[in-house]
Batch of 4 targets.
Target 1
Amino acid sequence: MRVAYNEQMTELADMLGVMAGLAGTAMEKATQSLLQADLALAEEVIGEHDQITDLSVACEERAFALLALQAPVAGDLRSIVSGIQIVADIDRMGALALHVAKAARRRHPNHVLPEEVNGYFAEMGRLAVALGAAAKEVLETRDPERAAKLREEDEAMDDLHKHLFTVLMDREWKHGVAAAVDVTLLGRYYERFADHAVEVGRRVIFLVTGKMPSEPEDTGEIN
Amino acid sequence: MRVAYNEQMTELADMLGVMAGLAGTAMEKATQSLLQADLALAEEVIGEHDQITDLSVACEERAFALLALQAPVAGDLRSIVSGIQIVADIDRMGALALHVAKAARRRHPNHVLPEEVNGYFAEMGRLAVALGAAAKEVLETRDPERAAKLREEDEAMDDLHKHLFTVLMDREWKHGVAAAVDVTLLGRYYERFADHAVEVGRRVIFLVTGKMPSEPEDTGEIN
């Protein structure tokens, strides 16, 4: 009984890691589809999204079964309940990658982004993928010190996001309102993706230590 | 023991209802501060936000204590775990209302919105507040039929949000890129607020029936 239980706990943890990996891969491909106006790649992200949703349902079911059948206490209880919360964050990361891919598909064969901001999105994409990979690593290692670093790494995303808005707000912006609207929403998607990765880290700290780090600001505010 | 347990279950449910009420009130005031460029009201929303965050922490702690001490099964287990998930949705609704208030404060004494789109935001605000109130009602009554209706009510929000983008994308838009960026983000905040209210409804259906309605699309996509 105990062996089966431990196996199921490990499986739940593994499934969360796999989900985080899928969300990171989705964001990586979505960014490339955005930068290259690559329709096939955008379609791939869109087609693969169900994998994340399906895993999300499977993780919740597994967590409920563990709670219902095993009546876990202390650390195990924290692991399972935090797992359910983490599912929601990773699910959202997948949805945000999907939004990026859909934006690329919507404007195809045109590029969504004016060339002027390509560099910003290449870098925001790189950071988002790195944060996704860090969230996956933290889910696998449960290292609270590594988890705490995600917040620092998110600062680079926030800085880029703020810079992007100064570009948009500049009187020299020559690409019209429609492009500005696309850039605004896309910037927000990347920034929120990173926030959810940080939130995964915060929850891992809680499940390991029993103490919840203070809630971060929604760092996507523009000034 | 059982009496104390039932009391604590009821208290958790009550706290969620109170939280939803606070998020709805915050969005109501935030919308008025936005439409009237009312700085005092914006400050009020910003100052009161901690109440929502504090309740969010208190709800999570209460839920954990119930899980740890009582080892609930079946319906009670679903109630508590769903409660934890619902906390995250309402917490987010509060954060989105906060964003609206901060936008009003940031541009004060100017109005954030060009007069042309005031009507859209007045109506989106009305719908958001109604959805918040419906979420509160559903948390209190646990009526799955009422909960299912939230999704229909959200359709009006989606329609408005789409219309808003046609106004933005119109060649006749005369208010510049900076205003367009503000309108884009604000529109997204209202639309996401409504999505989270729908999600609360979906989780109430699950906690009552044990069956999860299918996940809605993120309905904020523009075409």
Note: DSSP finds six helices and no strands in chain A.
Target 2
Amino acid sequence: MGNLHDGHLALIRKAKKYADFVVVSIFVNPLQFSPNEDFSQYPRTLNADCKLLRNLDVDIVFAPDEKILFPVQQEILVLLPSIANKFEGKFRPGFFCGVATIVLKLFNIIQPDIAIFGKKDYQQLHIIRLMVQQLNFPIKILDVETIRAADGLALSSRNQYLDKAQRQEASYLHQTLKNIINDIIAGQNNFSLLENKATDKLSERGWKVDYVSVLNQETLSPVHTRDKKIVVLAAARIGKTRLIDNIEIHR
Amino acid sequence: MGNLHDGHLALIRKAKKYADFVVVSIFVNPLQFSPNEDFSQYPRTLNADCKLLRNLDVDIVFAPDEKILFPVQQEILVLLPSIANKFEGKFRPGFFCGVATIVLKLFNIIQPDIAIFGKKDYQQLHIIRLMVQQLNFPIKILDVETIRAADGLALSSRNQYLDKAQRQEASYLHQTLKNIINDIIAGQNNFSLLENKATDKLSERGWKVDYVSVLNQETLSPVHTRDKKIVVLAAARIGKTRLIDNIEIHR
């Protein structure tokens, strides 16, 4: 969606490494915003973005007007399985349908061999992989680790909505996930206890927590005793700004 | 779906004319059958089909096992606009979702420049064109006129379900559409009257009519006074066999 930061640039550096022709799409996708969300205020900085992309020697920036992608009202959409209504999907109804539909359209327009997504939007990456498999797209999906500020806050265009005090507090979301990981490494198996403890602690500090969930990495379903690959997902609001983050652990 | 007749062969001849490499897909698609429909008894004649296709000098026959297209339960589907719940979609719930999803999968596997569909499945052709437009598939859709038996019956694999008497009566569906067209050419503007008259006549003769509808060719919505391009769609059952047909008219 543009307003590029080092997280996006990491995607592009990976693309340059794996592909001999790199297309960057920049499009603030109205389909994935609810009416009460920040579509109109979402930061749009195309000129600055293009300067950064020129430095990275990108071949094409595809930044279409809305009328190009939606010449008529989009009435054909991607119908997703129930995982799309959990976690992010529960708190942002229609979000993943909007994401999957625009990604499918961009796939068909750009026809990439490889497409690259960040792990910060962990559930999104999961759903895009599902879509590529189940709809037989001839596209290899690569992921990129989340890029963080020095204090651990995951980079996000929405971080600029934060005032100074909020920005300082924001890194506590990452700290929360690290605490859970440490408890799991220390042998804690009661994941709902960890989720609830984290939620309570965030709430005490003034966050409005949407979810903190300890999940199987590959299915995003609850962790079974023998599961080795775990991910902790979280979403919470600080003031009016909604932040998400996640950490993986291989126990 | 295979069990090839001259209608299918007309599609392939058109493909050979427009493309230098022709792939024929043959797959009886479980997604588009309701539980009470004829999925298990649908005629499968792959060896005979391949002989016909060899004569036509087709490059590839893609006839995958179900496990190839559905290694896991298909949980990502194409969500279609309300037109998909009318006419065929009203009497075959989920039919167009199943069709659109398999066609999308085949598009991604085969990656054709051109795809060819018959006009006999008129609403299907309409929905596939919509899908290609709205999901930005880089594919040109070509259509082929319905091929008919000498008495006017549209060729269909399901015609072989008919016994001798039913086969004789079956051509009356096409006759019904021709009668409507003649009335329109003669100046009749009361389309519901024509629809009802046709339905009554078919019912008197023992047909169970699903619908007879006079529509705008391009939108499949009711005809406005100034519309020039009209199509009449019909679906009706004779015994247990469900037949569909349509005629276009440019008035």
Note: The longest strand of chain B covers residues 229-238.
Target 3
Amino acid sequence: MFVSEKQIEIRYAETDQMGVVYHANYLVWMEIGRTQLVNDIGFNYAGLEEQGYISPVLDLSIQYKKAMRYGQVATVRTWVESHSKLKTIYGYEILHEDGSVAATATSLHTLVKKDSFRPYPLSKVDPEWDTKYLEIAKVNN
Amino acid sequence: MFVSEKQIEIRYAETDQMGVVYHANYLVWMEIGRTQLVNDIGFNYAGLEEQGYISPVLDLSIQYKKAMRYGQVATVRTWVESHSKLKTIYGYEILHEDGSVAATATSLHTLVKKDSFRPYPLSKVDPEWDTKYLEIAKVNN
Amino acid sequence: MFVSEKQIEIRYAETDQMGVVYHANYLVWMEIGRTQLVNDIGFNYAGLEEQGYISPVLDLSIQYKKAMRYGQVATVRTWVESHSKLKTIYGYEILHEDGSVAATATSLHTLVKKDSFRPYPLSKVDPEWDTKYLEIAKVNN
Amino acid sequence: MFVSEKQIEIRYAETDQMGVVYHANYLVWMEIGRTQLVNDIGFNYAGLEEQGYISPVLDLSIQYKKAMRYGQVATVRTWVESHSKLKTIYGYEILHEDGSVAATATSLHTLVKKDSFRPYPLSKVDPEWDTKYLEIAKVNN
């Protein structure tokens, strides 16, 4: 199983009046984690989108364990939990600098054509990418 | 079961380059839905926070069904799914103008002291609010 | 001179750890103010964009006077400061509930074709809208 | 004159349906630029805030020249334009990867006590920091 790691310098704009990172911003970090994973294995999400495909979130679940604060650096660990013809599930761990867990999460995605939002298998758009995902997936389908 | 409704005029800033509302913004709308629910039954979240209590999200799950776009008005339906001594689960439906479902979600919250993040029962801070939540909860604990 | 008014219920997500509204969010409110102004005089920005035109900000200036907080309602007052063939300047006042000024601002926009970002006069796309802007502009060009 | 440089990997969440970075996000980048400048000269904004001081924006002006897109890396160049007892003006250039200018900006800040929002001279809180700012300021007051 391949796990990608990305450091996030926490932005002042990401805090709220609780004095911690506003919870919706973790979803933005999860997306940065996915982008990093894709880059780490040699592919490019921006390029996919230029070809007319996007990969929206269909389902997302997140468990908040320990709040993060401005001035800290978050580490987002991202992996492919499972990958099948039309569905990819990513897994995430967001860590504090001392290695303690700030949050865990999963998100389910499908690939769709940008103009129609119709599902389209990654294996047809980019067979190498599809093969790589099958190879690194934690759970084989 | 009491269901609160709140209209959200979709902001340009909430869209992304897919041409639809960025998925993390639904969490902001869910929070607006909770605030509305609290107001609708005669209480006030800002006031609770002034007394030194906050209600962070511990767990959140969302299913994206049908993307929303700028120029539309979203309706957020919010209810108390369940309420116990230290845990409140809210349920949500986010609707298009034609009544079709854009997303469904749940979020789990606890009340904590702002300075220590230690859990504290709502029944001790505001017994009337606690009683009201037990009364309107969909599922009784 | 026509001045449009729009109420904004301040969102928890808009605060930062200073305990006040994060300063960049005022720009989002300014945009909501512009949208309201356009609606109030009977036109529609979303429609313009569907025709292939967008109106990006070229220059923006804002003076922050008195911070706003969660639980308050902001009022955004928006007007057309000046309007010429290729440039429209909007003026703004953002007010507290007691009428005191939270911020003042101006923004300069041009209309461009969405695909090329090339400037295009509003008078050619929608002559009525152009005439209305000339009529309500505070300063005549 | 000292100029700090910070690379910003553009986030998908920062785009809007124009297909470019939403204009308010440049203000977030400007803040990241200020933080970097402060770090580069050996000081720490988070530490200042822990001591009970914050540095809100009083006035901000930005000129948008050439839109930025997802997949690009922005460079934020930040310097101290001027510094006096109660006012600090920062200057900014935001650059595309080819060195062309995406935006230029300035922002005016004062230091205030967090609890009262009363102005307080940096020279009293941290004389070394104050001296450094006077030394690197582009325009001497």
Note: Chain D has a mean pLDDT of 96.
Target 4
Amino acid sequence: MDIRQYIQENEPRFLDELFSLIRIPSISALPEHKDDMLACAERWRQLLLEAGADEAMIMPSEGNPLVYAEKRVSPEAPTVLVYAHYDVMPAEPLELWNSKPFEPEIRDGRIWARGADDDKGQAMIQVKAFEYMVREGLLRHNVKFIFEGEEEIGSPSLNAFLKAHQELLKADVILVSDTSMLGADLPSLTTGLRGLAYWEIEVTGPNRDLHSGHFGGAVANPINTLCEMLAKIVDEDGRIAIPHFYDDVEDVPAAEREMIARIPFDEEKYKKAIGVKALKGEKGYSTLERNSCRPSFDVCGIWGGYTGEGSKTVLPSKAYAKVSSRLVPHQDHEKISRLFVDYIQSIVPEYVEVKVTPMHGGEGYVCPITLPAYQAAEKGFTKAFGQKPLAVRRGGSIPIISDFERILGIKTVLMGFGLESDAIHSPNENFSLDIFRKGIEAVVEFHKAFGA
Amino acid sequence: MDIRQYIQENEPRFLDELFSLIRIPSISALPEHKDDMLACAERWRQLLLEAGADEAMIMPSEGNPLVYAEKRVSPEAPTVLVYAHYDVMPAEPLELWNSKPFEPEIRDGRIWARGADDDKGQAMIQVKAFEYMVREGLLRHNVKFIFEGEEEIGSPSLNAFLKAHQELLKADVILVSDTSMLGADLPSLTTGLRGLAYWEIEVTGPNRDLHSGHFGGAVANPINTLCEMLAKIVDEDGRIAIPHFYDDVEDVPAAEREMIARIPFDEEKYKKAIGVKALKGEKGYSTLERNSCRPSFDVCGIWGGYTGEGSKTVLPSKAYAKVSSRLVPHQDHEKISRLFVDYIQSIVPEYVEVKVTPMHGGEGYVCPITLPAYQAAEKGFTKAFGQKPLAVRRGGSIPIISDFERILGIKTVLMGFGLESDAIHSPNENFSLDIFRKGIEAVVEFHKAFGA
């Protein structure tokens, strides 16, 4: 049966299966969802078996378990390892959702739910393409699946798992659908990712909350101090002021900057879509360079003092921030992490104490466009979307992609089908049904081309 | 009966009565405590009647009701109006309390509870001194009481109440026990208070939370921006950078600076008590000047982005801060409020939108030491504490003290009995039983001297 017909006939079942996954709030950041993690892993195990895997199992790790499945065609054939993650981001702030985050709804040709795209929807594309290849007897290579449950918290247990199971996970290429395209009519393949470093900062001033009238003006306020320190991390030109931060950052090659400049990009439309009057970033670089090839620094969360209703006056004892930096290829996240800690400690004034805790991190990644699997992916996109995909670097981080290369020695092809409008990590995450269908077709064509 | 003997014989009852008030969590900042406000007001009404008032009543206002009571001795005699407040601050963070905030406990000669000092304990001093004067037939002047329930949220309904009841509240002097002394062995009377202005700042960047990987580096982060703006409010010399902020600030007169310099003050002990290695404040002023005669700026609360467990990466849509400035006499809080709003709007970068909401405010206050009621208070302290109290300016704000003067035309004498170690507004608020007893005696002696 033709793949398009197969999708048409089976779509209600595909969506039922996807919705059964979405309804499990597998939020890895919140310990109260431990049971949901297990339930979600188990549901994937069943679905992978039903899709045609010879075997599928739950494998323990130091943290949430992983789901492993495989379909062996021949010991001589090459092997594709499909990686995905079954955990999702927290759904807060809940009041901004138009429908419940864990009750998927279809409206305007889109699935609305946390995980609709990232990564349950995209993982389902892989599984349904695999199902078609198996049922139609078209598979010419072995396929393995490894789905983890800690991607959104930085995959703390994955490295140890990879090291412990190098033989099991042996493959010729890793296939991942967890990135996005330039647009619905502008298919693209991701050839570069940014790395990540993440820290929590705790500033302690006085040993207890003080009356701001009795002490204000004479005792340093840790929130004021935290703000002053955070304001010293990015300079006026949008450059990160940490000494040696840029030491390993390669200047973007002129050829690549030219290619980026050719990507159709409407800055006015981009600003309008996110509702800002002006953009801000590093001097000397374009928006597309700033959000993909250049490092960034963001305060992801801040809190301290009285944050309830009304107007309590207080000179608080403590203030906190969660901060992150997106890194580019060749920046070592552990080195950057140390540089950051050193920099913060070097600017701590004597009137507060500051603790900086590195939380997690990962390296950037580059995929060469000469890789046979990359070219198979390019063919898949071309057939499904009717045009050759652009090769682009993206600003997001999948720290484990570089870990795959480092630990398993395997390159990854990033066949991502998300759109910016999918609002992943935000309220009203959604995923286009049209893209879902085209995605399945693109992965089927990848398998055909890779097997040939 | 001698006042000391009276206190000794009646203390268990005094404490029972005080504890019955403390057990009512009359937190004005939290709307869910509306019923507690009414219960607390009613409890005071009963206690004022039992203490000897001719009548006591609950009077409605636009917000929480007030308790009014009076004892008329003679139409020709002067009148003392005792002001106090029955509301308390929120008790958060609860985990830092050694005993439950609304279950008073006596340990180490101190009462431990929210409101033990501010202002239930101090108000009880006034009521028990009044009770003694009435029962012993010593009262030679009229006494009125007005207890409000919104002091900790800036007394939003009091001005309208004062204007509506000028005749009822007519008096020669207002007596307030809601300030603190320099030390248990260093009695002092407060002759100056700082004013207050308070704002909430809302910074909006993108119209939704964004993925910090896909947008980070190209789109301004509202938390980073908020921190940068807050860092521009106090300059390197500890001066507030808002244009015209100091226009109406009087330089502290040389004579007063000399008096302040004579106040026994151990900076090392002060630092040790609050657990900081260094102090910070306006260049050119001493610590005691900085926290009493000079303005201050504090971020009382800040929040935005992901503040839960773990490490969510996000470029948030919004960031918030609650900020306040302590003002000195002659600074108009409404003018300062406008200057602040104008300044913030003048430094808002084009890539975010900022809303600044003035929350509440009040003027500073000065009490002349030549006032007869001040001198009666001085005598009261001298008898109770065995030494003449120092006249000092304090850094806290009771905005309504200047409103009393403006609206009712009455000066206030601030007979406060708190200690810095009482931890008002903080976890583990407490009040010394010894001070409680001496306070009652001091107020009794005030009444005797004032009536003479």
Note: The mean pLDDT of chain B is 95.
